[in-house]
Specification:
This protein has a domain of about 50 residues. It contains 12 helices and 2 strands, in the order H-H-H-H-E-E-H-H-H-H-H-H-H-H. A two-stranded parallel sheet has the order 1-2. The two termini are about 25 Å apart. The mean pLDDT is about 85.
């Protein structure tokens, strides 16, 4: 499943700042122009808005980073002495805390990219907790929104959820949707690997044929290597 780093989530920072500054100026243009020292005032106002937006962006990145660290934390019942990384005694405890943190990020920074991705990760954590209905509802909502990359990973997560809960027809349907509309984050080869894994339990011969096709179509890629490994494992 695709994972985004805090650095990648900052790529829309400039656009966010510019949009906020432009919006503020448009809403307050009359008051700004009527005041004295117009040029200096515009510069001051724009700088202030950009500073505020940058501060919010940094706060969103930091909050998202903390939640992501929780999501990826180690589960160790009794951590060895000297361990300084974040750990949890149980997976239940870890994912419960991750849901809380991601939902907080989504609520506070919903208009930022970090907030939108926080909803996705909250759904993944809910899936790990066995809260399948809640996770499905969230992922379906994300899949129907305008961010193509986020919608694609949400659909892949839905496919995995359906596969996990024996809804194989739903899983195949949604994987096929993504296969027809791949993105940079979820390329076609990634979806085909997921489909082949699904077919391993429902139609092994079809899985073998798809692995062979992946190996042929994407030579030298991680997908081809993975397909070759699965074919070797099946031949043993």
């Amino acid at each position: 499943m695709a994972r985004l780093t805090r650095h990648e989530l900052k790529k829309d920072e400039f656009a966010d700042r510019l949009a906020a500054a432009t919006g503020f100026f448009s809403r307050n243009r009359k008051q700004i122009v009527l005041g004295g020292g117009t040029v200096l005032l515009v510069v001051a106002v724009t700088t202030g808005v950009l500073y505020y937006v940058r501060s919010r962006q940094n706060a969103a990145s930091e909050a998202f980073g903390r939640a992501l660290s929780t999501y990826n934390a180690l589960v160790i019942e009794t951590p060895p002495a000297g361990v300084t990384v974040q750990t949890f005694k149980t997976a239940q405890e870890k994912y419960t805390e991750a849901v809380r943190q991601f939902e907080e990020v989504a609520e506070q920074f919903g208009s930022y990219r970090q907030g939108r991705w926080a909803r996705y990760y909250a759904a993944l954590a809910q899936r790990e907790l066995g809260q399948h209905a809640v996770a499905e509802q969230t992922l379906l909502a994300i899949a129907g929104e305008g961010d193509r990359d986020l919608a694609a990973v949400a659909k892949m997560a839905l496919g995995a959820l359906y596969q996990k809960t024996s809804r194989t027809e739903d899983a195949e349907r949604i994987y096929r949707e993504v296969e027809s509309n791949p993105t940079a984050i979820v390329p076609r080869a990634t979806v085909q690997i997921a489909l082949a894994e699904l077919y391993q339990t429902t139609n092994p011969s079809r899985a073998t044929a798809l692995y062979q096709q992946i190996e042929k179509d994407y030579p030298g890629t991680a997908a081809a290597d993975q397909a070759a490994q699965r074919l070797r494992a099946g031949a043993q």
